[in-house]
């Protein structure tokens, strides 16, 4: 490495800032008939890449509440958000003034229960419901891709456990019809 390249690298390290914090929602729904899980992807307003709803911290709102608010403003979805984070990913963002910063997005699962027709950013983005694998293939950030696949496993396990519980309760004899032991 040349002396100039080394000095340039040292200067970059001196001015490197910690990542800017954002909060995002991995929005999902379970189809009633098939039991399949779909996740929401949308395009970013500036580059058109596939992303999840996310935004900056908000005064007097917890991180998961910010994620829920951003999902409503950016995609018009409402639902139940889990207060525990699924994980995080980073991505480079170019600010309005042209400065590029690294953003770290804490992601929260949001089970969508309702979609509204009119919302703040309607018409500014394309919104699609896709499979986990399709979502993982569309997003550019490797860490976000990993979050989709890890959440797919979590949901598969959760739905399998729910199905097993349902089968076992379906096979139980109702209390009123149980035969007393002799």
From TrEMBL:
InterPro entries: DDP-like_NUDIX, NUDIX_hydrolase-like_dom_sf, NUDIX_hydrolase_dom
One Pfam family in the UniProt entry: NUDIX
Top-rank taxon: Bacteria
Chain ranges of the Nudix hydrolase domain: 18-152
Needed co-factor(s): Mg(2+)
Keywords for the protein's UniProt record, in alphabetical order: Hydrolase, Magnesium, Metal-binding
Keyword Lipoprotein: no
Entry protein name: DNA mismatch repair protein MutT
